[in-house]
Structure formats: C-alpha cells, structure tokens
Fold this protein.
Amino acid sequence: MELFEELSVPTPTPAASTDLVLDEDYPPVAPENGYGAPQPPQTRNPMTPRSTFDVVKSKPQYMVFVKATRNNTTTTLTKPNGDPIITLSGGKVGFKSSNRASYEAGYQCIVGIFKQLELEMNKGDLEWQLYLKGFGQGRDAAYRALIAAEGTTVKQFLTSVTDRSPIKIGEVRLCHQQHAVNAYRRHGTASHLSPLCSLILPLSLFSLHLPSIVITTSALIRRHLILSIRPAPYPLMSAAAPLSGVLPLPPAREIPSTFAASLRSWWAAGEKEGAASEERLLRKLPFFRPAGSLPSTPDDDMHIVAQSSRVELNNPKHYLNTLSMTATSASKASPPPAVLLHGYGAGLGFFYQNFPSLGRWAGKRGTSVYAIDWLGMGRSARVPFTVKSKREDIDGRVHEAESFFVDSLEEWRQKMGLETMTLIGHSLGGYLSVVYALRYPSRVSKLILLSPAGVPRDPNTTEPSREVTDSQATGASDDDHAESATQGRVQDLKSEQQSEQRKETRARKLFTYLWEEGWSPFQVVRSTVFWGPMLVGKYSTRRFIGLSEEDTRAMHDYIVNITLAKGSGEYCISHLLAPGAHARRPIVDRISALKIPITFVYGDHDWMDPDGGAESVESLRQSGNGHGRMYIVPHAGHHVYLDNPKAVNDLLVKELDRPLVTA
C-alpha cells in the first residue's frame, strides 16, 4: 500500500543553543523503505551545545500516517521497519453532505490507531511519529483526538509531526497558519521566523506543544524546512513547583476591549479552550497533576495529589467534571471527605484560592477534598432540561428542578464510593446542599453554606442585580478572621443592603426586569454573539479588581468559556427561585428537619439577606439541633471565598475539624 508519495523523514542535526533551527539546504534523507523508516540514533560531541529540542531517538519509532481527503480519512500504523500493523478508514461520500460525519469518522479512525498503539506499548518501550497529508476534516480530527482524553497515553511518546500537506496560498489553511505564527510571536518565542516559515506553521501544533515538530512542504516547493521548536516556558500564576513531564500552557488571553478582540475570543471559545482555562487555575496548586503528567507522585510536604477527571453517571451522556484532592495515606480516624459545590452559572475553578488550604488539610488528616461542576454547568455535561409539571404546580416544578441537580450528585457519590461527606456550597450550591441533605440525610455529616441562596422568606431582601453591578470587596488582610454573627453585625449588613436598594441604578432595574421576564444572564451574553467576551470582560475587570492582572485574565477566560457553552442547568433557576432570587420553597422553612452541624457564612458586603441565616440557626435550635452557627467575614461580598480567601480558608478548616454529631 502506498502511503505518502515522496515521503521522507529528515533527521534534525545538533545546533548551537538556538530555539529555532532552519536549514533550507539540508538534504532530505532517503527513506529506507516505502514507509520512510527513521534513521538510527545520532552520536553527539559532548562539547557541542545542545539545541533546545534536539532529540536523540533511542527507542523504536513507530509511525502513524493520516491521509485526509474531503470524503475520507485513512489512517495507518506501521512498525519501525515500515511493516503495516493496522489500517483504518472512514468517511461519507459527498463533501457538502458529509459535514461532521467525515470528522467523526476520522476521529474514530485515529482513536482506533491510538488503542493499537497502547497495545504495542504494553509489549515494550516505544516512541512514534505522526505524518499528515490533506485538508479533509479527518486531519483536524487527528489533532483534536491527540489532545483529548483518548490521546492522553500516547501523546507522551510522540516525538515528531511531519506535515506533507501542500501549501494553498489564499485558502483557509494558510490563514490559520499565519494566525498561529502571529499568536506565537506575541509570546516572544519565535520572533525571528522567516516569512516562508510563517506560511507553513500549523495552528494545531502550537496548541499541542509537541516536543519536536518537523514540517515539510510539498513537491511544489521542493524544499525541506527543518524546524526544531521549543516554546519558552510560560510563567505559572503562582510559585508552584514545576510539574515533572508537563508542558506549560499558554497564558490567558487579554480581556477584550475592542470588537476585533472580542470576536477572536468568541471564535476560540469551546471545550478545548475551556479545559485549558480551567487547568490554568488548577495549576496554581503545587500538588496538581494534569492528565498525562509523569510521574504522578504526591507532594513531599503535603502528602496530597490533585487530579481532574470526568465521572460518568448512570446515563452515559451525563458526567460531572471533578477535581479530586486525595491524601496519599489514609487514616482510620480521618474525617469524611469534603465536597465543594459552586453557585449559579459558575464552576469549580472559582474555588482556586481555596484549594491549597483545603488540600493541605486533606493531606494532614488523611482524607479527600472534591470539587465538582453541577450537571449542566461549568464543564460538566450540558444536557437538556425539561419540566413536566404545570406552571401553577409550584411544588412539582421545584421538585423536578431540584432533582435534576441532587440526583446527579447522589449518582456521583455512588460512583466515587463515598459513604458520607461534608458539603461546602456557595449560593445556589448552598441551597442545593441543604436539599440534598434533606433527601439523603444519612450521607451528609456537615453543611457549610457560603452566602447561600433561597434561605429567607421575604422576597424583598435580596438583590441579585448586585452580582452583576457590584465591584469586588477589597481591603482583606492576613489578620482578618470570620466573626460570629451577632445581632449588631447582622443589622449593619442589613442597613447597607437597604442603602443599596434606595440608590438602585438603571442597570439594576434592567437586570431585575430581565430576571422577571425569565432571561438567564448567560443567555443575554450568548445573545450578543461576538460582543459576548467583551461584555464578560466588563464584569471581570470590575468583579475581580482585587486579583492580580494575570489572575483576572485567567478568571475572565474561564468565565467566557463556561458562559458561552450550551445553556442547560441555568434554565432550572426560574423553577427554584422566584424574581428577586428568593426561593419558591425557602430553606428557612425546611432546615429544622436536619440534625447535623450547619454553618452559615456571609460577607460583610453581601447582597444575600443574613436574616435568613440567623432565622435558620434559631429554627435549628428550637428543633433540638444546637449545632447551627453563623459567621460574618470582613472585606467580602457575595463571593466571600474569593474576596477574602485567607479568612474563609481558616474558617473552613476550623469547621471541618469540628467534632461530628453522634446519634
């Protein structure tokens, strides 16, 4: 079988300490057989400076060939000597009608090749090279499969990519390649590329951060350009120790201030960018290990390992995005694991400043801490939601909407094998934590509710518009600590809220009107299409003013990607909360049935009504549960855990160590 015509495999030569090796006169090495077997390992003068990615191949080099046409994708895996192992092909005849069908077929082909590669890896150490040719959707599918979960194992052993696709001046490929070069130049690592090189650097390769990239032009140019590229290390957002075997992520995009920048951000948004934006936040953890990192070892000082994953539920289309922080040595006296649950339209990445402290607690106590994205939010499955109850059946609507979330949480608990857990919920996550505890009381050991939604009865005590219009509370210091909520502190917070209500702006009135009309804030952003990222940027720069510039960009990028994702869980909100963000079935009327320790936490600039928490603590006391507490955190608003993380982290550890109630 003929694979690629005139295929050759050039071998990079040692170069003197440069990031880019360009030798237009380098002669192509004649293939040893029809499949272009790699050359034997080179010897090196020990005094010769090592180029940044001059790889000496010492392991068997398997080869994967991907030939993509408009209608079909053919993939072949060969042994180092060129003997074919497996060939897979698929597609749909008719380019206009093929659309995603051709992409999916190509994706499945390359995934099948990856599985065969894994089988070969079980027989012994190996490395492999990828050869591409053509412009069909299967070519893009090969790149995407490589960076997806299916490519986690094999991509670690990929040594080079050879692109044999002909250059098509003025067409899509050239446009994408030029954009890739421009983006790469902004990172300061390839500013001296020649114009000809700029025309042939593919966008996908930079997003993959492959160790060695060999790109050859077609016979139309008859030149072989040998590129050995190593991206300069991008600074992490913290002083976390470098991760062994993990390539750096590119920095977050600038917050768009122009339509053009907003359009670029909108175009780039998607699952891949969302995963990268989340990982930027998680890499602040010194004990976080991205998928495929080597080795996956615990932090020596903290005895903890953190990894993210998708946990599939009973329905194969349903999964919850999960961060697991697990102690390397369990203790018989360890407390139940803690689970962080985010608020409406947010994601687990919002807790990035709380993970280090909670991780240290888990490592010290020999337990685990988890954070999940609710079904239909964050990076969890965006599944459709429908309510069968009639509009006037309030209890039925509330029950169905609550079940959408808490049933998936129960399925997740079963999949994770947890007996009991402490739930730490913010805003809507706090409301749903109480609902879960009411339905599954034997599975919850404690509740810690951070500015929970849906607690009070009075519909005029909350101002959801302030979530959009308020700036981040600032002034937090290391000396801050949460204080018990005395009647005086609660009254001070109430006075501030009443003052804000009196000076409500037009923006707040517009927000309230849209809420009453059933609009989701995220639906508003998606409706603006190309202007969406710029609209989110106005929120990000105001709401996260207390963060560093780099962290603000990272949070903005994260919010853009989860906001522009398909609407799902956000549509449940109108069934749970009436206009004004008060619950149709207030928590204060239901919480007395619980017999476990419950802690309410509010910021001193919170827009949630603290009276609801105070009344709930009193309701618990009257029902015989004296384990209810309430705290006010200084210099903090509704996102209390983000505005004053030091004070909240200290409080969380204190409450997690609080003795359990024995029956």
Q: What stands out?
A: The CA atoms of residues 465 and 509 lie 8 Å apart.
